[in-house]
Amino acid sequence: MLDQAFFYLFASVILLGGLLTITRRSAVHSAIFLIATLLGIAGLFLHLQAEFLAGVQVILYVGGIMVLFLFVIMLVNLDQAARQRQFNRQWWLALLAAAAVCGEALYGLYRGRGAFTFPGAVPGNMPPNTQAVGNALYQNYMLPFEVASIMLLVAMVGAVVMAKKRL
User: Fold this and answer.
1) Looking at the whole model, is its pTM more than 0.85?
2) Residue 70, class by beta-carbon neighbours within 10 Å (0-12 exposed, 13-18 middle, 19+ buried)?
3) I need a labelling partner for 2 at 20 to 30 A (CA). Which of 13, 71, 114, 166 fits?
4) What pLDDT is stored for residue 43 in this prediction?
């Protein structure tokens, strides 16, 4: 019973945050509501006992990407951007995407509950999710992990150098 209450709580936070993200006129308010949506998704990951994904969601998306979005929103001249011509010529593509999503939802309702199977419960003797991911990263995939980290560091330094030249 408590599991369902938490699921519905996080689902309502996600839905309300997503709705408020796309309906606010202020870009800063939209970014704040997107942060609330991402935190709700992290809560759902915790509810599913996926601690690593919840941590990545909070650290990477809420902590990193959204801070970057907020910096970009603050640096862009929104008054000038509001006066520019908007991309309203692609309404047919949005209509097609909305029709596809509605079709998928109707198909799911038509097939019923028995058409979709979910995995069973996790056995109690399994190691925690974060521990298994950490062991795999640092034992079996150490070299690719370090190569990816060096590539990200080089990209970060390159972005700082390129931004420095523009100033």
Assistant:
1) no
2) middle
3) 114
4) 94
